[in-house]
């Protein structure tokens, strides 16, 4: 009786220890992959620098009495893009590769709990996205003169969108990893999806300049709401008039992200296997 009780009480501690070790392992593995570092970690920073330099001499973007330069205007969308890249793209490609090269099959033959594996992956997304976003904000502020918010309520909104976006993107990344039949096809399968979402979700193009039907399509997916949520943090309040309905719609955005989070969890539960069963 006492032995059983002891095992029950220490099991969560053991699982947490394994999960923490997996997070450290996943973070180290992430930064050892040059393609992940450049196309996921550094991509938003490179794009911010590119747009800031390209439009350095252009007129400021106006909304009512307020105006911002292009570095400020593009920063929110690129923060949101970084979350999507770190979750959906990085996890989707990574897990598909591990399934293809037999890594998942080998892990399935060990005592590693599935939950610890998931915690390791999601923890990696959280850590890398935190570092990525910190670098992005530092580059925007120190190199391109972007004025960051001083209002605590805005940073509260940032934290909410950031954490919900990471959770949603992570589970969708795990779920989408089941799409490629082979690991070598993962990049060709997943990257175009993420790229198209960036162009239709108000990251590179003003959202209201898109056709109404394309706005409606983009509004089904998480990135459009992460981008508008981040715009509510980093842009003056007068820019709210440039959103559909003249509002940031933070509540609706949270509901859409939460719906995708639940959908992603269900998809993970249905599709995740240590080894793909072909045929």
TrEMBL record:
The lineage of its organism: Bacteria, Bacillati, Actinomycetota, Actinomycetes, Micrococcales. Keywords: Antibiotic resistance, Cell membrane, Membrane, Transmembrane, Transmembrane helix, Transport. The keyword Transmembrane helix applies. Residues 35-275 form the ABC transmembrane type-2 domain. This is Transport permease protein. It is found in: Cell membrane; Membrane. Belongs to the ABC-2 integral membrane protein family. The chain crosses the membrane at residues 37-61, 73-97, 118-146, 158-179, 186-207, 248-272. Its main location: membrane. The keyword Transport applies. It is a multi-pass membrane protein.
């Amino acid at each position: 009786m006492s032995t059983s009780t002891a095992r029950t009480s220490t099991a969560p501690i053991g699982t947490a220890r394994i999960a923490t070790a997996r997070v450290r392992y996943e973070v180290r593995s992430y930064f050892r992959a040059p393609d992940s570092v450049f196309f996921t970690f550094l991509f938003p920073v490179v794009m911010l620098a590119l747009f800031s330099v390209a439009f350095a001499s252009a007129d400021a973007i106006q909304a009512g009495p307020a105006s911002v330069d292009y570095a400020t205007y593009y920063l929110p969308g690129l923060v949101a893009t970084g979350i999507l890249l770190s979750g959906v793209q990085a996890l989707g490609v990574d897990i598909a590769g591990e399934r293809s090269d037999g890594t998942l099959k080998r892990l399935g033959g060990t005592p590693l709990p599935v939950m610890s594996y998931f915690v390791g992956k999601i923890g990696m997304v959280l850590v890398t996205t935190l570092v990525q976003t910190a670098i992005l904000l530092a580059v925007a502020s120190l190199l391109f003169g972007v004025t960051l918010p001083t209002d605590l309520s805005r940073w509260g909104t940032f934290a909410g969108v950031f954490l919900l976006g990471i959770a949603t993107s992570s589970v969708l990344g795990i779920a989408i990893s089941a799409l490629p039949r082979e690991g070598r096809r993962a990049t060709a399968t997943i990257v175009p999806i993420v790229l198209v979402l960036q162009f239709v979700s108000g990251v590179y193009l003003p959202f209201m300049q898109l056709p109404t039907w394309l706005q409606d399509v983009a509004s089904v997916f998480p990135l459009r709401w992460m981008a508008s949520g981040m715009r509510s943090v980093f842009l003056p309040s007068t820019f709210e008039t440039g959103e559909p309905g003249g509002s940031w719609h933070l509540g609706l955005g949270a509901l859409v992200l939460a719906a995708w989070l639940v959908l992603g969890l269900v998809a993970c539960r249905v599709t995740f296997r240590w080894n793909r069963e072909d045929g």
